[in-house]
Amino acid sequence: MERNIPKNGLVNLVLLLAAAVGAYLVARAGNSPAGQAGASLLGVGVLVAAVSWFQSRLEERERLEKLEFDELRRSATGSALFTASESEILPAQRSREQFERIFVPVFTGLLVVLQLLAAAYFWRDMTGRLQMPPVDLQFGMAFFSAVALILFLVGRFSAVIARLQRLPLLQPSATYLLLGAFVCAFIAAGQMGVWMGYREADLYLGKAFCLVLGLVATETLLNLILEFYRPRVKGKVERPVYDSRLVGLLGQPEALVTTAAQTLDYQFGFKVSDTWFYRFFESALGWLLLIQLALVIGSSCFVVVNPGEQALLERFGRPVAGRTPLGPGPHFKFPWPIDQAYRYPTDRIQSFIIGSEPDPKQAGNKLVLWASPHLDEQNFLVANRDLDAIDATNGLGGVTAPSAGGGATNRPPPGSLLSTSIPVHYQITNLVAWAYNNEDPSQLLKYLANREVIRYLVGVDLNDVMSTRRWEAATTLRDRIQRAADEHHMGAQIVFVGVQDIHPPTKVAPDYEKGVGATITRQTQILDAQSHAHWTNVMAQAHASNIVSVAQTDRLRRTVNQIAQEAVFTNQIPAFEASPSVFIQRAYLATVSRAMANSRSYLLLGTNSQEVMILNLEDKLRKDMFDSISVPTPKSK
User: Fold this and answer.
1) 199 class by beta-carbon count within 10 Å (0-12 exposed, 13-18 middle, 19+ buried)
2) pLDDT tens digits for 103-121?
3) What is the rounded distance in angstroms from the CA atom of residue 8 to the CA atom of residue 60?
4) What is the pLDDT of residues 39-79, one digit of tens each?
5) Is the CB of residue 31 less than 8 Å from the CB of residue 133?
């Protein structure tokens, strides 16, 4: 049996080569990314099988050479041929040692680089361009299923021989055969998923193969690094450094059970693997896995729709005919992957933002200024019909275009940039139309809303939309977005559209504020002049009216005084004629009384006194002592 080992390795190599070439050609013709990535795994197996086969040939030559050397030694003892060392007279052994010391590490390093390059290439090829769905699915499924069966049978045979006879150089090709069998089986399953309607199944499987390539390359690199520090024991057969343990685990998953048994025996100190419970568990493991699989499949027969949601049921990737959307509550369906339910929040108001997105770093900032960055700005082009304002505040981004006659009446309005954040709130009203009439409806609705916002802003005035027409802008945008959604039969209702955080771009906001400040200052000065003119006119009218009123009052006062004096004179004549002396005395005293009414009076008694009296006229005597004193008017006789 041992003499057939190189032959078994050669059979494994040829089978892996044929499988890799056939898988790549079929996958390339059928546009299957998973098939191409799987073919790369088989190609790595071809290289590993070739090196292990060649190394087994070297060991076989060394074995035969030693047999001949032992036979000659027994037949010709004492000859000078046997006085030299074995390394000098055994060239096959030297060739094998040099191969293991030089070629194997170099090959392992190149194998790591090749695996990483293949993984990166196929990953970029699958994500960098639009993948077309695989074709010729029936032929691909049949081919990969047949290849998987052949690889599994031959790989299982080689793995059993390698394990029973402890042949480490036959193990790498056997594990890659088993891994190739599983890879081809998965490729066939992925193409079956595409045939059933799951278009992304083959693509996701190809990405998984790329990850496996990367993991195997990483594990091989670690083995190569640790190989330099591994102690060598003479006579002990070592495992080749290019033989991946991860590949062996993926190709022979039952090795996990053996490894677990050995670990338990080591931890507990006795043969746990010989107990009845472990034997029962090992024999019933398949049934336990089948029961778990049945439970998982059975659990997929039920779907629970949450409150406020509706679900669409699809069978083999197509809507179930005559089945209305599922309402809140539990529902029965066929197991996965036959039936799948997709839930949508039909009662919830959903939203997105057109334009500037809020900056999470500025969420706690209560002071928001135009000139300080506070949004992830997106600028829109907006008209500005206020030509004088643009000319006065040059630098806002507007471009004036003078007319042919040099005037400003026929000039088109200049364009300016405007930063705004427009939240759009919508609700799904027709779930079937929302899910099936358009691909990626939420993104389409966002594109439609962005288009309508751009169209609207280029036809409105900058100052109007920033001040008095914001509500009108929000209402108009809601109607336009709703009309666009109805044209595409989206089955959605636009509930609210807001216009907020509207301001010039942050870079030109200071210049805009200067222009607005100059306009406000000019308007303030105009209003101050008008107020001053109004105040001056009113005060002049009041002063003129006051002068006229004073003149009229003075005229009336003088007229009345003259009439009163005339009446007094007329009434004094009879009194004077009645008693001239008394009238004169009374008139005199009345005049004195009027003249002394507000003057300080001193009364001196005693005409014979020689005293000198000094009066201090600076001090004011108590007013209450003299204010009440009055000279009585003499009564007429």
Assistant:
1) middle
2) 888 888 888 888 888 888 8
3) 13
4) 888 888 888 888 888 888 877 777 777 777 777 777 765 55
5) yes
Q: Which residues contact 434 (CB under 8 A, 6 or more apart)?
A: 344, 428, 441, 490, 491, 492
3-state secondary structure at position 22: helix
**Separation between Cα atoms, residue 499 and residue 470, nearest integer Å:** 6
Q: How far apart are CA 272 and CA 266, in angstroms?
A: 9
**Domain extent listing, the chain:** 2-254, 300-344, 350-361+368-507, 527-626
- State yes or no: cis peptide before 337, omega within 30 of 0: yes
Start-to-end CA span in the chain (Å): 180
Rounded CA Rg of the chain: 56
Task: Return the ∠ at Cα 171 (arms to 225 and 143), rounded to 5°.
Answer: 110
> Hey, what CATH topology would domain 350-361+368-507 get?
Tetrahydropterin Synthase; Chain A (3.30.479)
Residue 507 tokens read as 């870079």
Dihedral of CA 573/574/579/585: which sign? negative
Helix (H) or strand (E) segment spanning residue 426: strand 415-428
List of residues 6+ apart from 419 with CB closer than 8 A: 355, 356, 375, 377, 378, 379, 380, 501, 502, 503, 504, 505, 506
Q: Dump pLDDT digits (tens) for 325-383.
A: 888 888 888 887 778 888 888 888 888 888 777 666 665 666 566 656 666 667 777 77
* CB neighbour class for 228 (10 Å; exposed up to 12, middle 13-18, buried from 19): exposed
Q: DSSP character for 538?
A: H
Q: Which of 345, 338, 326 is nearest to 300 (CA)?
A: 338
DSSP 369: -
Sign of dihedral through CA atoms 196, 197, 198, 199?
positive
DSSP character for 354? E
**Burial of 187 from C-beta contacts in 10 A (0-12 / 13-18 / 19+):** buried
Query: Helix, strand or coil for residue 402?
Result: coil
Are 477 and 453 contacting, i.e. CB atoms less than 8 angstroms apart? Answer: yes
Mean pLDDT value of segment 566-594? 82
Spatial contact of 312 and 432, defined as CB atoms under 8 Å apart: yes
